[in-house]
């Protein structure tokens, strides 16, 4: 059993009267690579900030590498890499100066990786010495990713890391990320709205909805088993499907059910007349689960 890297229990966070996190329980064993999904304003950035101890919570607790996030040791801090949604820091430094600054803070720093990424990600020439404040949004984001990968973190948390990247930049980032997680030792939390990217890299997906992690599962299992089923309520109820995610009643006694089905349940369903079952894409599932 892999050790647990992130453990959140009963996390709650309100802003004024808005209850954004309503008791998040989340446990990520080492090597988990999870895409965090949710509608705009669902609380993904808030959750990420609470997990990293960057934002105070109203209730609940978080531990990282087995240590309470409120009293994290220097050693544990050095094992974390974080790319915030907006990388607006150190605007007066050049990329090279900023990386030098961070290099001094970490016990481990992979110079060869940093140099390779700088060259491949457009910082081979004049951008190296340009103040960060004058870089484009995508350039700042690339630099934030380089900084987060440089000390080879064991926990990498990325808040919409590709939002400002062009398709080539996204592809290069994903390639780098896939390389990073290949060892099975790095734990990654990765929020994004670009579901096609998740399909390429995330092993698990988690949906944040109504202030809680409503569903987390391996992506391939989720896509294999998820169905939107419409038919007479009585017939569907008789099947006793587990894993129901959503149910909508229609006039006349029929229902639409979104559910995760086992192979056996799928077989039982196929034998039923008058029932329509459609497979769902990740995008369909996102819409259904976050309704
Ligand atoms: N500092 C703050 N003060 C007041 N409200 C806030 C603050 N930060 C976030 N919120 C509110 O909390 C909710 C969750 O915001 P958050 O940024 O966590 O969502 P998100 O899921 O990351 O959204 P997006 O996908 O749009 O980036 C939003 O309704 C937001 O307006």
TrEMBL record:
PROSITE patterns: ABC_TRANSPORTER_1 (PS00211), ABC_TRANSPORTER_2 (PS50893). Keywords: ATP-binding, Cell membrane, Membrane, Nucleotide-binding, Transport. It holds the Pfam family ABC_tran. The keyword Amino-acid biosynthesis does not apply. The keyword Membrane applies. InterPro entries: AAA+_ATPase, ABC_transporter-like_ATP-bd, ABC_transporter-like_CS, ABC_Transporter_VariousFunc, P-loop_NTPase. GO terms for molecular function: ATP binding; ATP hydrolysis activity. SMART domains: AAA. Residues 6-235 form the ABC transporter domain. Coiled coil: none annotated. This is ABC transporter ATP-binding protein.
